[in-house]
């Protein structure tokens, strides 16, 4: 009897882990944007999946899930908040898995949990963006350089040149996760994007227009 109960417990843990894992997965694509297929499987060849890594991936999940609902724009905020509650339920279920408990016991960050929380922050940005569209605030025009709105990599570059942002955060006696969270608060981005700014991968996705930023930095000397 004990063996059967242990097997059932193991099976439920795996299912609970896959629920959040599958939800946060997106289709892996090649350099041309075509879906990568899983090789070595007979019959229909499925698309290869990977865990979301950036805001483009979060947008794919957002469009995928909300396309199932046919939600009117005026009701989107309500459904986003409802959607966040569903994610919270999946997170709580995931926290009961052996995989998560093992991470905690070994003082490791849970990558899956970090991505889930970053996606929730992304959903919050959708609420904010919707309100800006309704208000039609033109004040953002004043926050451009040469008529161009700055991307996150460019804001990060300016903050580093003028405030030594990376150095000041990195020198603090706190964990890497806390450093990422602190940077996310300062730059108004998700924890995932802050982590990518730290390791340099975000700058490859959103390149700096140096001809614009360097001229602006020259005016601050």
TrEMBL record:
It comes from the Bacteria. This is Uncharacterized protein.
């Amino acid at each position: 009897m004990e063996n059967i109960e242990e097997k059932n417990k193991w099976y439920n843990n795996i299912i609970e882990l896959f629920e959040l894992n599958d939800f946060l997965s997106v289709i892996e694509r090649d350099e041309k944007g075509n879906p990568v297929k899983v090789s070595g499987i007979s019959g229909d060849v499925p698309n290869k999946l990977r865990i979301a890594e950036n805001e483009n991936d979060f947008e794919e999940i957002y469009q995928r899930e909300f396309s199932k609902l046919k939600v009117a724009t005026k009701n989107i905020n309500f459904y986003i908040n409802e959607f966040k509650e569903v994610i919270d339920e999946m997170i709580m279920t995931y926290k009961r898995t052996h995989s998560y408990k093992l991470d905690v016991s070994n003082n490791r960050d849970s990558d899956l949990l970090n991505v889930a929380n970053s996606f929730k922050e992304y959903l919050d940005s959708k609420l904010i963006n919707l309100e800006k569209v309704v208000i039609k605030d033109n004040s953002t025009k004043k926050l451009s350089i040469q008529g161009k709105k700055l991307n996150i990599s460019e804001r990060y570059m300016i903050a580093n040149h003028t405030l030594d942002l990376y150095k000041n955060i990195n020198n603090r006696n706190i964990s890497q996760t806390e450093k990422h969270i602190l940077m996310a608060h300062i730059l108004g981005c998700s924890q995932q994007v802050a982590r990518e700014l730290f390791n340099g991968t975000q700058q490859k996705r959103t390149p700096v227009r140096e001809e614009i930023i360097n001229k602006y930095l020259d005016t601050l000397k």
